[in-house]
Amino acid sequence: xxxxxxxxxxxxxxxxxxxxxxxxxxxxxxxxxxxxxxxxxxxxxxxxxxxxxxxxxxxxxxxxxxxxxxxxxxxxxxxxxxxxxxxxxxxxxxxxxxxxxxxxxxxxxxxxxxxxxxxxxxxxxxxxxxxxxxxxxxxxxxxxxxxxxxxxxxxxxxxxxxxxxxxxxxxxxxxxxxxxxxxxxxxxxxxxxxxxxxxxxxxxxxxxxxxxxxxxxxxxxxxxxxxxxxxxxxxxxxxxxxxxxxxx
Length: 248
Description:
Layout (H helix, E strand, L loop, with lengths): L13 H20 L12 E5 L10 H9 L3 E4 L12 H15 L7 E6 L1 H12 L4 E7 L15 H6 L7 H8 L5 E7 L19 E6 L10 H11 L14
Parallel strand pairs: 1-2, 1-3, 3-4, 4-5, 5-6
């Protein structure tokens, strides 16, 4: 699998970072002023949403409500604030997998996992651990394709590898590898927190798809273009995967 070269990437500009709160507020206002219509109700399958670093169920409430209005049984991960993995990463992920299995009790259809920022790393890794229970993974502003710290907050590598300078090659390769199921990455070139290049797949296949939107990082959970892309992906039936064309 092709890997992005660290020396060709840079962190988002400080101007973009500083504009994040204002842009996110504008995106929220736009969302609230938009009339959201559904032409066909969803099939009711479960949608588990993983918040970003420092976020909780409240931070993904707009996204969760959006999924429910579309006709899906959406809920957050139920673990409170996302403070990052604790201890051994694999052990922590297996514990999280068990909790996701509990959340899906009573659901017979395969679920969709959605992760925002760091939460997208969880969604991808859990998708790898339980592909039989998951129909697809959707990540939003998740920098899975990197070998060094290309963020403006320096959280990913300290949390996953214990180092702010780099990442173990094996772990980097693991995070870049998509789950063995339909996987969509939604990203923005104007993201002020993570380098947008690290949110895209290098390996092309019929199972991975990258969708570019215009928006801030911290406003992606209510960005109308993100919500439209999520609606399109949730409406894909098993066996009918198709490409997404951003609405103009």
